[in-house]
Amino acid sequence: MIQKLLIANRGEIACRIIRTARDMGIATVAVYSDADAKALHVRSADEAVHIGPSPAAESYLVGEKIIAAAKQTGAEAIHPGYGFLSENVGFAQAVIDAGLIWVGPKPSSIEAMGLKDAAKKLMRAAGVPVTPGYEGDDQSVSRLKSEADAIGYPVLIKAVAGGGGKGMRKVDAAADFEAALESCRREAKASFSNDEVLLEKWITSPRHIEVQVFGDSHGNVVHLFERDCSLQRRHQKVIEEAPAPGMDEATRADICAAAVRAAKAVDYEGAGTIEFIADASEGLRADRIFFMEMNTRLQVEHPVTEEITGVDLVEWQLRVASGEPIPLKQEELSIDGHAIEARLYAEDPAKGFLPSTGRLDDLILDSSIARIETGVEDGDVVSPFYDPMIAKIVTSGPTRGDAIEDLKAALTHSAVSPIKTNKGFLFECLDNGDFAAANLDTGLIARAGDALLPAENPSQEVIDGAGARLRFDYLDWDDVNSFGPEAALLKGLYGFRLNVNPKTSVTLWHAGQAYNAQTDGEAQYASFSRPGAQVLVTERGHDRIFTSTPPRGSGAASAADGAILAPMPGKVIAVDVDEGDKVTAGQRLMVLEAMKMEHALTAPFDGIVTELSASEGGQVQVEAVLAVVEPAEET
Q: Are 304 and 241 in contact (CB under 8 A)?
């Protein structure tokens, strides 16, 4: 068995691996960049080695530094986690060549599945059904355009080296193809250093179904059933669950058998995921489920599989990497209940889900009913250099409905401040009627639109409850009348209940300074005390801060309506206009790259660009004025 393990990653996955390794008696080594010097994964590991500046390209993506850190500390093995170098063939081979154990599949397996076009050809040969499309070597614009026309619109452009939703564009009409191809290639080049693409027929009612597979060096391959990752926003997974709703046993047997064939075709060892796209227009049917790609690593959403199978997949990875066989045979694996996971991100749904960075003054995650996977704590900083995920919140229960209700409760009883998050958005997704009824496809979020955004203003119940909570800090708790003539304060052994109005009651507990509120007997929101006469209220998962007096600076002036501000720190990768240019409302002015994503900044109205301070390749800070557009004078 491995005695000392280096984790070539950061954040929640590094913490997750450290936890299992510690349970197995394996010493751990963390690596960190400048930005992560005080990060939780560094504090959690037995040892830590600094590997460079904050940008991932100068630290977490430099394989030589990571291998040197393993040698320096005497680590025998390297676990790559997911992302970064986890599917980098050259790094995997370099680890092996250095005499270290690679906790992952053989480099040949990664290479076979690393490029989507080659993988699809291999899967066809293995008898795995694949989506109709084009994976040819001719990458000219004219050839790709003609192939797209032949496939028929809508068509999907995908980077052959892509992953995580990057390098993907849906094209609805022939006229839009070339612009979408250019954007896709640019993003693929920046993310994967490879701008080649393939084309796939767009499935009109798609569900994203994936199967967890596991192989060992003794020739064994098993599956651990399927996950449904259909709830997506712009190809990024939002909520994942296992097993897939509506999957009958016959279809499950077919898709899982196909996944095992796919893994055997590349002589697979370790944890991997075979991703399928299903045409769910007539429910889940085996003859309408097609191979998309294989992820040759541990997936972000692996906890839901662990919850329904009782298996620790990281433990299996470490045992298989040490030369042991898979701990269980296929017939020993079964599904128990239902599990669901939500990805909590530092992003602002009200501003187009732009990333939100800064210090986490408040981070309260409810671990009483949920499994929490996180790499941050109170006081930590969400950096602009890396993926903005704060935590994964996972619940499980006997039924899908039970798991959903527990996850909604966990979101309600968690709070994050002052950073903006998608927590309220996650709650609304879970509460959506189609999602609750398992009427799923990858377009559900787009169709629901603004209905999934948290309400702009708090409810009257929340306002009343917040006011009541703030009065607790200033008034005599023994004097019921001090809470107003309509209030009734009931004292108990552990706290107080305040009946705010005929429909709403507030309970304040002595311990923890937290209160819960009920409206007509149903839990609606939770709240947490903050310094400075403030209370943080979570209503339907959305966090709001109330103060007894308006905070200073709340009326600070903003830039003029025509000022184009940087919504976050980032790099300007394209500037489309010059000073003096006439522009129309919605016209793209420039493109900002941040958090591994592209963000187009557009003209707010028809006018003239009177100032332009941004230049291609320049780094900008949040709220920097990049350009000014003034309305054109009427003639």
A: yes
Q: CA–CA separation, 256 vs 262, rounded Å?
A: 10
pLDDT score recorded for residue 150: 92
Q: What is the pLDDT of residue 567?
A: 73
CA-based nearest residue to 361, from 156, 223, 530, 152: 530
* Contact in structure between 225 and 242 (CB atoms under 8 Å): yes
**149 membership: H or E segment, kind and range:** helix 141-151
pLDDT in tens, 507-564: 554 434 444 544 444 545 666 766 666 777 788 888 888 765 433 333 332 344 688 8
Distances in whole angstroms, Cα of residue 12 to Cα of each of 82, 206, 212, 426:
10, 30, 20, 19
Partners of 226 in the β-ladder = 211
Residue with tokens 């940008």: 55
Domain assignments of the chain as residue spans, ordered by start = 4-103, 132-201, 206-450, 460-547, 563-630
What is the average pLDDT across 173-195? 93
> Is 343 considered catalytic here?
no
Question: Where does 10-137 have alpha helices with state H?
Answer: 11-23, 40-44, 63-73, 89-97, 107-114, 116-125
Catalytic residue among 297, 319, 469, 540: 297
C-alpha 95/C-alpha 106 separation (Å) is 11
3-state secondary structure of 463: helix
How many Å separate Cα 312 from the centre of its chain?
Answer: 21
Cβ–Cβ under 8 Å, residues 255 and 209: yes
What's domain 206-450's architecture?
A: 2-Layer Sandwich (3.30)
Grade residue 608 by pLDDT with cuts at 50, 70 and 90. Answer: very high
CATH 3.10.200.10 fits 563-630, yes or no: no
Distance separating alpha carbons of residues 373 and 593, to the nearest angstrom: 28
CATH superfamily of 132-201: ATP-grasp fold, A domain (3.30.1490.20)
623 torsion bin: left (phi>0), alpha (psi -120 to 50), beta (else): left
Beta bridge partners of 4: 27
Mean pLDDT, to the nearest integer, of 113-141?
A: 88
328 CB neighbour count, 10 Å cutoff: 17
Region 195-217: what's the mean pLDDT? 93
CA distance 307 to 337: 8
4-103 domain in CATH 3.40.50.20? yes
Q: 48: Cβ–Cβ under 8 A, 6 or more apart, which residues?
A: 29, 30, 31, 32, 42
CA proximity to 588, closest of 598, 597, 233: 598
3-state SS, 113-146, equals HHCHHHHHHHHHHCCCCECCEECCCCCCHHHHHH
- What are the φ/ψ torsions at residue 266 (nearest 5 degrees)? -115, 20
The answer to which of 138-152, 242-256, 402-416, 554-568 has the lowest mean pLDDT is 554-568
Give the pLDDT confidence score for residue 310 in this predicted structure. Answer: 98
Q: What is the DSSP pairing of strand 389-397 with strand 415-417?
A: unpaired
Q: What's the pLDDT at 560?
A: 47
Region of residue 397 (left: phi > 0; alpha: psi -120 to 50; beta: else)? beta
Integer CA distances (angstroms), 137 to 110, 129, 151, 448, 494, in order = 20, 21, 17, 39, 70
Q: Which residues contact 439 (CB under 8 A, 6 or more apart)?
A: none
Q: End-to-end distance of the chain based on CA atoms, in angstroms?
A: 80
pLDDT at residue 421 is higher than 90: yes
